Amino acid sequence: MIKSISIRAAITVLVCLAALFYLIPSLTDNLPDFWKKHLPAEKIPLGLDLQGGIHLVLEVDTNKAVEAILSRSAESLKEPLMDEKIRFRYIERTGGSLAAAYEFPDSQSKAAFEKILQDSYPDLEAGPSEIRDGRETVPIRIKEKRGGELKKHAVEQSLETIRNRIDQFGVTEPEIIPEGKDRIVIQLPGIEDTVRAKNLIGKTALLEFKIVDEEHSLEEAVRGNIPEGSQFAYEYRIDRESGRRANNPILLKAKTVMTGSALESAKVAISDRFGEPHVALKFNAQGASDFDRITGENVKKRMAIVLDGAVYSAPVIKERISGGNAQITGSFTMDEAKDLSIVLRAGALPASVTILEERTVGPSLGQDSIDKGTWAAAIGLFAVALFMIVYYKLSGVVANIALILNIILLLGFLAAFRATLTLPGIAGIVLIIGMSVDANVLIFERIREELRAGKTPRAAVETGYGKAFLTILDTNVNALIACLFLFGFGTGPVKGFAMTLSVGIVASLFTAVFVTRIIFDYFIWNRKISKVSV
Amino acid sequence: MELVKPGININFIGAMKWCVIFSVVLTILCVISFIWKGFTYGIDFAGGTLVQIKFKQETSADGIRKVMTGIGISDAIIQPFGVNEVAVRTAESTSDVKGLADRIEEAMNAAYGKGNLQVQRVEVVGPKVGKDLTKKAILAVVFSWIGMLIYIAFRFELRFAVGGIIGVIHDVIVVLGIFSLTGKEFTLTIVAALLTIIGYSIHDTIVVFDRVRENIPKNVKKDLPTVINESINQTLSRTILTSFTVVLVVAVLYAFGGAVINDFAFALLVGVIFGTYSSVFIASPVVLAWEKYWPSRPRRK
Fold first, then answer.
1. Percent of chain B with pLDDT strictly greater than 90
2. Which of A199, A365, A486 has its CB closest to that of B97?
3. Do B152 and A203 touch (CB under 8 A)?
4. Has residue A257 got a pLDDT over 90?
5. Which pLDDT value is given to residue B300?
6. Dist CA B260 CA A50 (whole Å)
7. What DSSP character marks residue B94?
8. Taking CA atoms, what residue in A is nearest to B213?
9. What pLDDT score was predicted for residue B301?
10. What is the CATH number of domain B48-125?
11. Cβ atoms < 10 Å from Cβ of A123
């Protein structure tokens, strides 16, 4: 313990000034200009439950992502096989862990295939083969170790893509963090149109260009006889007059001729004729030359623009399109077109995401909570302070000084470390008001005991603090243990509670023990008082 | 001012027998209620959708229920939540982007007219999250017990640690029991309240035990029950005062904190009262029982 009162007082003043320094921006809106320029001007960050906004927990379907990679690489195996003149049949199976297999007429071809696999496809391996009618079927799968990496990568990529989309959408201080193996937590303060925000975040946005299959009968396909190499989809249309949605069936060739990954930009544009918004796409150099070739090969045919499995439009290719420009039309509103261009620019998610958890708080409820919480804190503080004065007289005043300093330190800490204040966090402050005076109660009761035992004020204060200190330390360490586990358990608001509670407990050690002692010592040593008002 | 006169000597040890019987019966009743009645889990744990709506004018629960049935939800629970405000809850949840909550909002707007209501809060929790959360909550509570057990055993003695933890377990069971019996919703914040109660109750117990530890070497001739009784009396004033200030702020929170933290404050209120009770009447008998079966060394001599 430092003996000098002035050094201890100086420490206290410094700590409190530092806390106030960080706290002042939160208390007033009219900071002087020099403060805004050179000093911390940030307010205590408020949780979503207080300022309103949306909290989402997403799960990335990592298995799907790995499956997609598997079927893509399995398909790309066809090319080297053809180059080597190996006879094969490609079997695409959906469902289960087995996504693809190759069938060979003899074991020689199989051996050649396995060599290609080993040499140029480090991610893939061949499973145990089956022999049926003299033909060997070899399933292909992703190596187990590599699978884990790919899953991790899928989550990282999703996170990055979502961050990109949100940044372009323009949300102030969004929080996007990974959680666990395959989850992403997103917090968007101040968002009011939640449907739009969720659309923006949750859309896979896989853009594909496919040629419409006009050789086969659509009626047959509707009945369920989908020809091999084709797929069935719906064209999504909104009737402009009735506003009704219509789904027209359409038959597409399964092969994707191009994807959105070849895009350089996507912008909202207004069409001349109807003044309707659409999304203008521009391909990068490679994409433009591919598009040029594909449109050249398919003149007079229809090309479908497919987004997440739904056909947006399927215009007829009138002539070869050079220059790498295309557009997605649909009956978009301005906002829809804007959001679509954002998701296309930010790119597709590597796998679909599902919303596991959603919490939205409207701004007025948040303000209401702040008002009620502040009110409860004020009443609690007043009641406890009054009680301390009635019960301990002047010593109660000393305890109240410590109590107020404690709250200043606690709030200053939150502001300085950008720790979020939530509604349970405010409840934690109210609780701290009641709990932190315990240290002073313990000390004062001890001092009373020592005084009753006939000790001088000086000796009583000294033993009182000395004996109570270890008790206070032990009790607070235990309270901190509970807070620690609470912090580990909790999500947003509960974490905020654990945070204010633990900071308050630590701060109370400083204010209720260290600071009050200075005041007592000052009166006893310097003023030589003969009686302690306790 | 003095509420508790110095030199007070209440025979706590004598009352302990009855308190232990009371607590054992209470604990058994609570456990029966867990099994029999279970808990009303909030959507944090059970999964589901909650939409809190503020209406411009008074709106009947039946009318709201009709709207819900209209969109195919027949199990909706409609809880009043302040003036002209309701929380509509259903066990269903969807993971679609345009989820159930949005459909509920749409249907309400269609039925009551847009502008006549405002959605204040939406919570959608998938069933998967609830399962994870239950596991995490149980782990957090149990690990906090183990953490405290180790700390107290290290700073004091094992018998005190065991006494303190049994007291805390008692408090948790009682609070859970009251939530089970009253059918109050068990949510995430109630877990936060439980851990706070654990922290508070052990805090209270340590103050008593600390005094016992201090008094044992001073009173070698007295037996342990007497020393414990004296220690409880000596710290009684502090125990009552601190409980009072904490109950005071929790009551303020309950009365003025708003509907969102009402149950949280209620749990704390019950927990603080039982926490104080257990640190006097439950933790100490455990230490005494321990002493009976495994006497500490200085006394065996």
1. 39
2. A199
3. no
4. no
5. 44
6. 11
7. -
8. A471
9. 41
10. 3.30.70.3400
11. 16
pTM, two decimals, is: 0.81
Most confident among A165-179, A374-388, A516-530 (mean pLDDT): A374-388
CA–CA gap between residue A514 and residue A528 (Å, rounded): 20
Name which of A436, A499, A51, A373 is nearest B261 in CA terms.
A373
Please report the domains of chain A, with CATH numbers, ordered by start residue: 5-47+362-526 (1.20.1640.10), 63-147 (3.30.1360), 203-360 (3.30.1360.200)
The domains of chain B are located at 12-40+129-300, 48-125
By the 8 A CB rule, do A210 and A257 touch?
yes
Percent of residues, chain B, with pLDDT higher than 70: 96
- CA-wise closest residue to A327 among A286, A276, A293, A257: A276
For chain B, state the CA radius of gyration.
Answer: 24
State whether B191 and A494 contact (CB < 8 Å): yes
Residues A302-316: tens digit of each pLDDT: 988 888 888 888 888
| Residue A105 touches chain B, beta carbons under 8 Å | no
Residue position matching structure tokens 């009976």: B292
Record the tokens describing residue B133, joined without a space: 């959360």
Task: Label the pairing between strands B48-55 and B117-125.
Answer: antiparallel
Q: Do B97 and A485 touch (CB under 8 A)?
A: no
Handedness of CA B249, B254, B256, B262 (dihedral sign): positive
Q: Which fold has domain B12-40+129-300?
A: Multidrug efflux transporter AcrB transmembrane fold (1.20.1640)
Nearest by Cα to A57 from A184, A155, A178, A160: A184
- Which element (helix H / strand E) includes A186? strand A183-189
**Nearest CA-CA partner of B165 in B202, B212, B111:** B202
Q: pLDDT for B201-251, tens place per residue?
A: 998 899 999 999 999 898 888 888 899 999 999 999 999 999 999 999 999
All residues of chain A having their beta carbon less than 8 Å from the beta carbon of residue B253 are: 376, 380, 427, 430-431
Residues with Cβ within 8 Å of B132's Cβ and at least 6 positions away in sequence, in order, are: none
Overall average pLDDT of the A120-135 stretch: 79
Do strands A277-283 and A263-270 pair parallel, antiparallel, or not at all (unpaired)? antiparallel
Q: CB–CB of A441 and B241 under 8 A? A: yes
Over 70: is that where the pLDDT of B274 sits? yes
- Which of B124, B148, B261 comes nearest A358 by C-beta? B124
Determine contact: B158 vs chain A, CB below 8 A: no
Look at the alpha carbons of B226, B232, B234, B236 in this order and tell me if their dihedral is positive or negative. Answer: negative
In this prediction, does ipTM exceed 0.90?
no
pLDDT in tens, B92-114: 776 555 678 888 888 888 888 88
